Amino acid sequence: MHTILVIVAPIFALILVGFLCRRTNKLGDKAAAEINKMVVWLCLPALLFKVTATATWSEIWHPGFIVAFGAGALAMFVVTLGWRLCSGHGLVAASIDGLSAGYANTGYIGIPLCLLLFGQPGLQPALISSLIVVCLVFAISLTLIEIGLQEERQIGRAILLVSKALAKNPLVISPLAGAGWAMSGLGLAEPVMHFLDMLALATTPCALISLGAFLAEKRTGSQASPWPLVGLKLIGQPALTWVLAFKVFSLPSMWAASAVLLAALPTGTGPFMLAEYYNREAGLISRTILMSTVASLVTLTGLLYLLGYAG
Q: Does the predicted TM-score (pTM) go above 0.85?
């Protein structure tokens, strides 16, 4: 558990900083929303652009791993989406909840964990999983949210409105622009890389402080239990990924183990950022992130023993 605790402890510390700053009024009542806007409009787009602009085809093309990890994430998203829609929730809320069940914290926890366990080669599966999470699962959720926000009866008009909304969204534009830049083969100048790095490195701490500030607010919104979403994220996703990685595709040991561990990571801050960005009730999402992070101390440690990496 020490390995996991070393990586996860700073997450709790940043959430606590945001919580205490808001409770002591060092941050105002609009702090969570304003910090989140900075993340959505500046920090996260810089990170997405940098990741896609610097990725090479040889680094990311591992089809067995892509399917094993991606199918696990998408399955949890689809299952949760269907469950929430059948429970009477709208498409916007159901999409954000679905993202909570499939959005692994691959950036802040996954990358250092893979580096600790597998050394430099562990960066590849961590990078691929990050791309799947932010450029596939996140993008699908964004698209469904925009569809859910439209009230147009005419299909053609609704598609046009959704397309326009997505074209203005920085979280859609930035990875597409990065992919286009990568295909150009121009590379990124050193000052540009430093600029992107400075913004990108602020993504996680700002998002976690924003989450802490949000948790400090006394709210009367939904008090629904986060544990069904936590269970899907920490048990359902790694279980399905285990079957695909070890049984179906028989991936090499590092790739199979990393797929399962990355699938077992707690929910990242992406769903919370979307809920705040679209002015939706974020109480359930914030509790899911917090509880899944706490519970992952136990579940990840158990997986490390099962996979033989506990030492």
A: no
